[in-house]
């Protein structure tokens, strides 16, 4: 495993102001969301809004290096969207981590690109493709087949859209918590009600599931030996024991680990 590693995920809402500007809508704010949803259904047959209209309300990450691991979140509790983006892209100015995501190539990174441009930000360390650093011609964060950014959903589907899987389903299949029995998307109500801990815990939960799947991917590819894989799993469990906001994640992981033969040893005390 090439250190440092950064597993990341974002949470978004529809940017009503930009949507009104784009479509020339003069409506009360309370009516804009429904109007934009209707327009999106008409033009694309889906409620999923175009990427440029996804306003970022949280970016969470798990940083792993020689010193250990650390979870973090930048959210709208204390930051504007521009401030969230500035903090996130500044990471790449200092270090050049292996970036790991689930569907990050098709969603998270393009949204970050659009929203950074919207706010007039510069992020060459993340988006340079060799124009500044010639080495990035051969290994940058945007190229689908490079290894600086690993979109697990894409690589595990062998780059074939028909084989794409949901993060929740894959995590459950492999003996990890997934969404912990809650398939609902609660981000809008978390933001509306200022439930910031719930928002960051939700986003960090996706990061943790992605990390666990990444470890299994490295084991499959021979980039982690079995003993090293088991060590990283135990290190993750020990770290989560210090994170009270993820007590539920750890508890559900203990239960789901017993559903596959390979993961039963993740929590040795449960096998006796």
Topology record:
Blueprint lengths: L4 E10 L1 H8 L5 H16 L9 E12 L2 E8 L5 H14 L3 E4 L2 H15 L5 H4 L21 E3 H5 L10 H7 L13 H6 L3 H26 L4 H15 L6 H10 L16
Helix pairs in contact: 1-2, 7-9, 9-10
What's this entry about, in short?
This protein is an alpha/beta fold and 272 residues long.
Description:
It holds the Pfam family DNA_pol_B_exo2. InterPro entries: 3'-5'_exonuclease_PolB-like (IPR019288), RNaseH-like_sf (IPR012337), RNaseH_sf (IPR036397). GO terms for molecular function: exonuclease activity; nucleic acid binding. It comes from Acinetobacter gandensis. This is 3'-5' exonuclease. The chain is α/β, with parallel strands linked by helices. The chain has a single domain, classed as Ribonuclease H-like superfamily/Ribonuclease H (Nucleotidyltransferase, domain 5, 2-Layer Sandwich), CATH 3.30.420.10. Helices cover 46% and strands 14% of the residues. The protein has helices at 16-23, 29-44, 81-94, 104-118, 124-127, 152-156, 167-173, 187-192, 196-221, 226-240, 247-256; strands at 5-14, 54-65, 68-75, 98-101, 149-151. A five-stranded mixed sheet has the order 3-2-1-4-5, with helices on both faces. Strand 2 (54-65) and strand 3 form a beta hairpin. Helix 7 (167-173) packs across helix 9 (196-221). The longest helix is centred in the last third of the chain and has 26 residues, at 196-221. The protein starts with a strand and ends in a 16-residue tail after the last helix. The relative contact order is 0.13. The model has no long low-confidence stretch (mean pLDDT 95).
Which regions are unreliable across 5 or more consecutive residues at pLDDT < 50?
A: none
Compute the number of helices.
Answer: 11
Overall residue-averaged pLDDT value: 95
| Oligomer category | single chain
Biggest beta sheet summary: 5 strands, mixed
Query: What would you say the CATH architecture is?
Result: 2-Layer Sandwich
Query: Which structural category fits the helices and strands?
Result: alpha/beta
- The radius of gyration over CA amounts to 19 Å
CATH class: Alpha Beta
According to CATH, the homologous superfamily is: Ribonuclease H-like superfamily/Ribonuclease H
Strand content: 5-15%
What distance lies between the first and last C-alpha atoms, to the nearest angstrom?
Answer: 32 Å
Q: What is the percent of helical residues?
A: 40-55%
CATH topology annotation: Nucleotidyltransferase, domain 5
